[in-house]
Amino acid sequence: MEERRVTNAEQAGMAHGRMGWLEADPLKFFSGAAERNKEDIVAVLLKYLGALESGLVLELGSGSGQHVQRFAQALPRIQFQPTEFAGHPSPRAEKQEVARILGSIAAYCAGSANVMPPQEQDATVLAASALVADEAVDAMVSINIIHVSPPAVLQGILAGAGAKLKPGGLLVLYGPFQRDGVITGEGNQRFQVMLQELDASFGIRDITEVKAQAAPFGLSLLEEIHIESSNNYINVFHKGQAGSGSL
Ligand SMILES: C[S@@+](CC[C@H](N)C(=O)[O-])C[C@H]1O[C@@H](n2cnc3c(N)ncnc32)[C@H](O)[C@@H]1O
After folding, report:
1. Residue 63 Cα to ligand 1 middle (Å)
2. Contacts of 125 (CB under 8 A, 6+ apart)
3. 90 lines ligand 1 (CB under 6 A)
4. With CB atoms 3.0 to 4.6 Å apart as the test, which of 72, 126, 167, 172 could cross-link to 160 if both were Cys?
């Protein structure tokens, strides 16, 4: 039987609707979900980073580039480092066309002086990566990644945040979450079934477990924002000051 191949873009698209390469501008990928959620996320970045005179934000799995373009526009004194993953999130997914995706990020950010050239980065090895220095990053952003990738990706993001965030830095995780084993909303319940059919290691993560996994890296949950329109969350983790362990 022929193996069914699913691209990363299709994986996200199944949950969130319209996405694809723009006919009018074929260098750019377009994600309807990114277009819808970017204002909620930028509001959180503005709340926490808006007063900084300078800073560095690292985005994992940047996707099309729509998010980082908007973030950089809203926070012109902050430098942004977008990244993308070159591997296979699932054995059933095609190898990502990473060069084309990095090209899309660059195309969205052409003219954004505070966006660095997008780089390849696998979140699972971020803690040991030379992409950014240890304790140099003010905030790390992961949007709609940890449920469409194996648990090692979440673990890598948390370890990476532990290594790369400055004391007092923030990790922003956007996406659907469950709590104590309960997924609320029919849409997310259906999404969970679909994710696990796609790959048994994928799935909506439990915020209680994420908090427990984050603690050894000095990360504690600072704010949990529920976005009613999408039933997603913006979970803001804070890396404790050296020696304090938490806030
Ligand atoms: C649903 S897409 C979200 C893309 C983008 N953040 C957005 O919200 O439009 C899932 C993303 O997870 C990324 N991803 C999967 N495994 C990864 C890994 N090991 N390291 C970094 N990113 C990964 C994919 O490359 C893809 O960009």
Report:
1. 6
2. 156
3. no
4. 126
- pLDDT for 247 equals 39
Give the total number of structural domains in the chain: 1
Domain region containing 216: 8-239
Question: Does 103 map to a domain?
Answer: yes
> Residue 67 and residue 12: Cα distance in Å, rounded?
15
Read off the pLDDT of residues 21-76 as tens digits, 9 standing for 90 and up. 999 999 999 999 999 999 999 999 999 999 999 999 999 999 999 999 999 999 99
Instruction: Kindly state whether residue 1 falls inside one of the protein's structural domains.
Output: no
Distance CA 167, CA 183 (A): 33
Both tokens assigned to 37:
């959620």
Instruction: Determine whether the shortest distance from the Cβ of 84 to ligand 1 is under 6 A.
Output: yes
Tell me, in angstroms, the distance from the centre of ligand 1 to residue 244's CA: 32
Is the CB of 104 inside a 6 Å radius of any atom of ligand 1? no
Q: In ligand 1, which atom is closest to the CA atom of 142?
A: 6
Residue 3 located in a structural domain: no
Intervals of the chain under pLDDT 50: 1-6, 8-9, 11-16, 243-247
pLDDT for position 5: 43
The predicted structure's pLDDT at residue 87: 81
